[in-house]
Design brief:
The chain is built from twelve helices and ten strands. With about 350 residues, the chain is an alpha/beta fold. It has a single domain, classed as Arginase, Chain A (3-Layer(aba) Sandwich), CATH 3.40.800.10. Strands 4-3-5-10-9-6-7-8 form an eight-stranded parallel beta sheet, with helices on both faces. α5 packs parallel to α6, α6 packs parallel to α7 and α11 runs parallel beside α12. The longest helix is centred in the C-terminal third of the chain and has 27 residues. The termini are far apart. The N terminus is likely disordered. The chain binds 4-carbamimidamidobutanoic acid (ALG) and zinc ion (ZN) (2 copies). The site of 4-carbamimidamidobutanoic acid (ALG) has 12 residues, from loops. One zinc ion (ZN) binds next to loops. Belongs to the arginase family. Agmatinase subfamily. One of its GO terms (molecular function) is agmatinase activity. It holds the Pfam family Arginase. One of its GO terms (biological process) is putrescine biosynthetic process from arginine, via agmatine.
């Protein structure tokens, strides 16, 4: 009795080893099959995918960054990555909106969490940069689950070291190009000003989408424009529609290597209550997902979803939206990987 119960656990947690096609190419190891093993059983990796240490290397690594020492208001984003993993148990392997099976096109795996010092932001930033750099050096793309928006800076540093200055598509209610808070330069309101100063962004292709809400003064916008950013406000998305917005973004990005950073507060608080600095009048989750799907031909090299704060969430509304956002981003990257492989 005991033994059979134990073997059941082994079946639940066990995964098949990597196998090969007759051609010799490794077939990606996909998620646990939720039609055979209840989706609420076992530890939560993103989309029930294998852990990176189970597959060795991955084309796309999902990386948690439990860090929220850079926030200016509500805390809790340190719990965001694991909440997104839990909510992602319901994702299925075929994405009809992009007509792609992301976990079959490429090896996607969960790389676990970065250890980031919660008491020293400078050291945490260095730790995130080092961990991201190590993964990128293996040739993987990163799908990072935050964490507060501070972490975009070290992620961009690591990505730029591999690809050179990248185009940035930034979904957020906030500019995050402010200078300092309490004299501190590394916060969740400042990552993109630091990134421009450090020369790690391609300033000919910087876009914010979803901007809205009160600012400190008109200079916020002047500074932002001088850094090279173009703004598509939340109201622009409403008036112009998702197709036109996606087309404008595609034209601006062109063939440049692209990094997408999604602050979940780009969504209206009705769609994402669980976040640190909510602003009324935001995008619907439908609008965000549709804009992302419209970027299929872009050269997406890495992405993040940040600012999910589970203590302020209800019924996993925010974590579900974030898990679907990460799913669309992962699908974009898997399709890129498959396209590059086919071109070789
Ligand atoms: N990155 C996020 N979520 N928020 C930045 C808000 C900075 C402020 O308190 O003015
Ligand atoms: Zn924000
Ligand atoms: Zn932000």
């Amino acid at each position: 009795m005991e033994r059979s119960a134990l073997s059941q656990v082994t079946v639940t947690l066990g995964r098949m080893s990597t196998h090969r096609e007759p051609s010799g190419a490794a077939i990606p190891r996909g998620p646990v099959d939720s039609s055979r093993v209840p989706r609420y059983a076992g530890p939560a990796t993103f989309a029930r995918l294998p852990r990176l240490d189970e597959v060795g290397t991955a084309d796309v690594a999902v990386l948690g960054v439990p860090f929220d020492s850079g926030v200016s208001y509500r805390p809790g984003a340190r719990f965001g990555g694991n909440a997104i993993r839990e909510a992602s148990r319901l994702l299925r392997p075929y994405n009809p909106a992009q007509d792609a099976a992301p976990f079959a096109l490429a090896q996607v795996a969960d790389a676990g969490d970065v250890v980031a010092n919660p008491f020293d932001i400078g050291e945490a930033v260095r730790m995130v940069e080092a961990a991201a750099g190590e993964l990128l050096d293996t040739g993987t793309r990163l799908m990072t689950l935050g964490g507060d928006h501070t972490i975009a800076l070290p992620l961009l540093r690591a990505v730029a070291r591999r690809h050179g200055p990248v185009a940035l598509l930034h979904f957020d209610a906030h500019l995050d190009t402010w200078d300092t808070y309490f004299g501190a330069g590394y916060t969740h309101g400042t990552p993109f000003r630091r990134a421009v100063e450090e020369g790690i962004l391609d300033t000919s292709a910087l876009s914010h989408v979803g901007i809205r809400g009160p600012l400190y003064g008109p200079r916020d916008l002047d500074d932002d424009r001088k850094m090279g950013f173009g703004i598509i406000t939340a109201a622009d998305v409403l008036r112009r529609g998702v197709d036109e917005v996606a087309q404008q973004l595609r034209e601006r990005i062109g063939g440049r290597p692209l990094y997408i950073s999604v602050d979940i507060d780009v969504l209206d608080p009705a769609h994402a209550p669980g976040t640190g600095t909510p602003e009324a009048g935001g995008l619907t989750s439908r609008e965000l997902l549709e804009i992302l799907r419209g970027l299929a031909d872009c050269r997406l090299v890495s992405a993040d979803v940040v600012e999910v704060s589970p203590p302020y969430d209800h019924a996993e509304i925010t974590a579900v939206a974030a898990s679907h956002t990460a799913y669309e981003l992962t699908t974009l990257m898997s399709r890129q990987v498959a396209g590059e492989r086919a071109a070789r």
